[in-house]
Amino acid sequence: MKTITLREGKERSLWRRHPWVFQGSVAKGGGDPGETVKVVAHDGQFLAWAAFSPSSQIRVRAWSFDEAERIDAAFFARRVKAAVAMRARLAIDANGVRLIHGEADGLPGLIVDRYDDVLSAQFLSAGVERWKDVIADALVAETGCPFIYERSDASVRGLEGLAVVTGWLRHPETADGSRRTTEVTIHENGWRLTLDVAEGHKTGYYLDQRDNRGLFARLVRELGGQTVLNCYSYTGGFSVAALAGGAREVTSVDSSGPALARAQAHVALNGFDPAAHTALDADVNGTLRRFIQEGRTFDAIVLDPPKFAPTAAHAERAARAYKDINRLAFKLLNPGGLLLTFSCSGGISADLFHKIVAGAGMDAGGDGYLLGRLEATPDHPTTLTFPEGEYLKGLAIVRKP
Ligand code: SAH
């Protein structure tokens, strides 16, 4: 077993059970990509068992802080079992669920989403890459899902020195001798939604917004929203929510044609009039400006943009971009109208996001009631020891008349 010795004073974060050690904290030692290493303080005191990653700034990711624990197949089976059991306790009324959320579940770099009988997985660190086969076996055993599709195509793989890998990881023949396709239908909030684990964004869908889509349907109904604009709609989850909430006219805007085609299909799939929905393949910022010029207004607007600030270093430019779209959306909102606005940037805190949106409202000449502070569904948990895990934050605002 190779040993990694930390510089004096650099043991504190592992003491607090934070799982990362940066390159600059390592005094000596090394290993192969994903190799299990023993991490010790400068005086030789045990700190953690961890995975080594020679090309990453995050040089070490801890598996366990218990010296007696062995990092083997049984260890991964225990971690997978605990993560799946936590979701089972939450009584989530959907068959699209995040089962493993990386560091929060003690499996740094591993993301696993369950879509009906298919697991869609991202292996994003050298450690989980090395244990891929063992983890896949544990996932099948623990979930009963026979199919695993790998979506290790996120850009962070590059930082770990890992190439893009996509394709079936477990793909047994079905009972009738046929092969399962990558197309899946899930249900959430009582709606049916489709996705393709091979073609969709990330693992196929944005499960973290499930509860916020449910909330949106409820608020549209309570507030009597008739005209709805869903910006960065992807496959129209919030658009279906708006129709379920009684909206008469819903417009989805996204720059992805395939996502919009699915959004349109989802309207009919859920029994709504396809004529009530318009899919716009366009840039959101430009569309908001055009709508303002045309004098259009809406009773409810959703802003769910992609990550503008991947890290805190991008926060300033991202803050301007968030402020811009929120100001434009505010202008398009009828008095008494509802705005659901989000940021999934880890580099923008909930506090900063609140300030940005408040500034945007001010610039647009309006004020609003804060109906709620929103976050990711609890199957995407943040833990006490790993605050970096917090990424999605949002606000539900009603524009003052
Ligand atoms: N609200 C969605 C998830 C949105 S993800 C849901 O509930 O499922 C962000 C979306 O923004 C992606 O679908 C992406 O295609 C789209 N997008 C990114 N940049 C864009 C831009 N400049 N204009 C319009 N859409 C954009």
Question: Keyphrases for this structure?
Answer:
alpha/beta, single chain, 20 strands, 6-stranded mixed β-sheet, 11 helices, 401 residues, binds S-adenosyl-L-homocysteine
Structure, described:
The chain is of the alpha/beta class. Helix content is 30%, strand content 30%. It contains 11 helices and 20 strands. The strands form 4 sheets. It has a 7-stranded mixed sheet with strand order 16-15-14-17-18-20-19, sandwiched between helices. Strands 2-6-5-4-1-3 form a 6-stranded mixed sheet. Strands 7-8-9-10-11 form a 5-stranded mixed sheet. Helix 6 runs parallel beside helix 7, helix 9 runs parallel beside helix 10 and helix 10 crosses helix 11. The radius of gyration is 23 Å and the shape is globular. The N and C termini lie far apart (67 Å). The model has no long low-confidence stretch (mean pLDDT 97). Bound molecules: S-adenosyl-L-homocysteine. The site of S-adenosyl-L-homocysteine (SAH) has 17 residues, from helix 7 and strand 15.
Helix tally equals 11
The SS-based structural class is alpha/beta
The major β-sheet equals: 7 strands, mixed
**Share of helix among residues?**
25-40%
| Quaternary | single chain
Q: How many beta-strand runs? A: 20
Overall mean pLDDT stands at 97
Side by side, the strands of the main sheet go 16-15-14-17-18-20-19
Tell me the β content. Answer: 25-35%
Bound small molecules, deduplicated: S-adenosyl-L-homocysteine
Radius of gyration: 23 Å
Uncertain parts: none
Gap between N and C termini: 67 Å
